[in-house]
Amino acid sequence: MPMPERCSRFAEYRDKVLELFASKGFGQVGMRELATCLGLAPGSLYHHYPSKQHLLLDLIEELYEELLSTLGRIDQKTSAKRDKLQNLIRAHLNLHQEMPWHFRLAERDSGCLNDEQQARVRQLREQYECKLLLMLGTRARLSEPAQRAAAHAIANLLNSAPSWLAHQALEEHERVEMLENLVGGAIERLLRPTVPRAVALETGLVSVDRARRRCKA
């Protein structure tokens, strides 16, 4: 649903609705409770949203709109691929702090949508993953299915990483640095150009031979 068409009162009370869905579970929240949360009569809420699934889709669309906008800003402002990756990780960590309920709903409750709405979410996710891959590049000689799988894996890493250390007693800068190293290292390894097996074996043998000579010396 385009931004201008969103219920203005919902925009005002969005955080309360998000927290209600995320804390109680989408299936446990009824339209009457949603209307009460928004300060509306149930009939008025139906005027804006035919069902709570439409409201859930609206929230998930909002998340992907922000993710896609974030990718666009990083791509325009950063030229070096390594800098793009670092900025991408930091931007996702910041988004998780700003929109934690959105991420939780998208991950946990997308399956509550009807088939048409789930298709819309898949379309948004594929658009996001495609843009990720275009921005970061990919290994040479990867098949198209392998490229899609790589993009899917990267998206999952970025969207799940902030929860990995959530319960660890770390300073904020320590948590951020650790997550950047973990996620950045995994993505760089995934996207690293493939070295032919013969070259890899030869390089490995040369390294072993050099190590032996150093030990003898």
TrEMBL record:
All copies of the HTH tetR-type domain together span: 7-67
Q: Which UniProt keywords are listed?
A: Coiled coil, DNA-binding
Q: Does the keyword Glycoprotein apply?
A: no
Q: Which Pfam families match?
A: TetR_C_24, TetR_N
Q: What is this protein called?
A: TetR/AcrR family transcriptional regulator
Coiled coil located at which positions?
none
Q: Where is the signal peptide?
A: none
Q: Which domain of life is it from?
A: Bacteria
InterPro entries of this UniProt entry?
Homeodomain-like_sf, HTH-type_TetR-like_transc_reg, HTH_TetR, KstR2_TetR_C
Which ranges of the sequence are annotated as binding DNA? 30-49
* Entry keyword DNA-binding: yes
